[in-house]
Amino acid sequence: MNFLRNILRNSSLLLLIFVAMAFIFPGPAEGMKSLIIPSLILAMTLSLQGTKIGKLGKENRQQVLWLILANFVLFTGLLILASFLVPDPEFMQGMIVIAAVPPAIAVITASFLMKADTERALLAEAACYILSLALTPLIIWLFFRGQVDIWELVKILLLLIILPFILAKILDWLKKKLSIKYDFKEVANLTFGFTFYLSVALAVGRILSSLSAVIILIVIMIALTFGLGTLTIYLGKKMRIEKKDLALYPLFATFKNGNLALGICISLFAVGSYVPIAIKSIVDAVYLVFLFWMFRKM
Questions:
Q1: Phi and psi, residue 135, nearest 5°
Q2: CA-based nearest residue to 96, from 71, 77, 116
Q3: Could you tell me which of 102, 95, 99, 3 has the C-alpha nearest to residue 44?
Q4: Which of 6, 144, 273, 295 has the fewest other C-beta atoms within 10 Å?
Q5: What does the DSSP assignment read for 84-131?
Q6: How many CB atoms lie within 10 A of CB 54?
Q7: What is the pLDDT of residues 123-167, one digit of tens each?
Q8: What is the Cα–Cα distance from 95 to 117, expressed in whole angstroms?
C-alpha cells in the first residue's frame, strides 16, 4: 500500500507512466477530450490549496521583479524566438502559447523542496498570474489575431486561473472547518496525469508523422531548459546570491504552466499544438531531478 502511495505522490514518475500509457493506449483519449478542462480546473484547485501570499515589503520588491522578468521577458522571449526554428506551424502555435503563460504552480513545491525562499516564490508567482490576465491574451493575440477569439481566450483564463483560486480558498475553509488534514496530493497528481495522458494520446499521430520536427522540438526544449537553468545558477553564484534566493532563478527562468497552455491549445488550436507542451513537460520532469541534484551538491 505504501509502495502505491509513494508512486501516486511522485508527480515526475507518474507523468512518465501516463506518457507510456498514451503511446500504448491512445484510442480512448478522443472520447474523453471534453473532460480536459474540468480536470484541469480540479487539478489546479488542489494545487493552489493552502497557498498564503505575504506582503510585498521593500526587501522583496527587487527580487520579485527579477523573477517576473526571468519568466515573462527572458524565457518568454527565447521561446518565441526559438519557435521560428520549428518547421511545423502547429508546433509553433504550441510554443508561443507556452511562452505566453505564467510559471508553473509546481515552482512553489520545488522551491520548498530546494529550501528556497517560498514566501518570495509565492509573491512572484502571484504577481505573474495577475500579469498573465493581460499578457497571455496580448501575446497570443499578437501572433494569432486572425485565428483566435480573444473573448474565448479570456474565458479560458478565468476558468483556469481565477476559478481554481476561488475554489481552493473554499476548500481551505472546508478543511479547516471539518479538521481535514489530507492534502489531496495523490488526487492532484492523478488528475494532472490524466490530462497529460489525453494531450499526448490525442497528439500521438502527429508525433509519429512529424518525427523530424519533433526531434528539432526536443533539442530546442532541452537546450532552453537546461541551458537557461545552468546559466542562471552560474550567474547567481558569480553575483554571490544566497542559496535560498539563487534556487528561485532556475525555476522561474525555465518553468511554464503547461496545464494552462494545454487548456488554451485544446480550446483554440489544432492537435499539433499539444506536442510542444507534452515534450516540455517530459523535459521538465528530468530537469527537476537535475536541479535537486545540483542544489544538494552546493
A1: -70, -40
A2: 77
A3: 102
A4: 6
A5: TT-S-HHHHHHHHHHHHS---THHHHHHHHTT--HHHHHHHHHHHHHH
A6: 12
A7: 888 899 999 999 999 999 999 987 888 888 888 888 888 898 899
A8: 30
Helices and strands counted in the chain (H then E): 16, 0
Please report the domains of the chain, with CATH numbers, ordered by start residue.
35-297 (1.20.1530.20)
The type of residue at 46 is: L
Contacts of 211 (CB under 8 A, 6+ apart): none
d(CA 15, CA 193): 6
Give the other-Cβ count within 10 Å of 149's Cβ: 10
Q: Judge contact between 287 and 254, C-beta under 8 A.
A: yes
Tell me if 241 sits within 8 A of 156, measured CB to CB: no
pTM summary value? 0.88
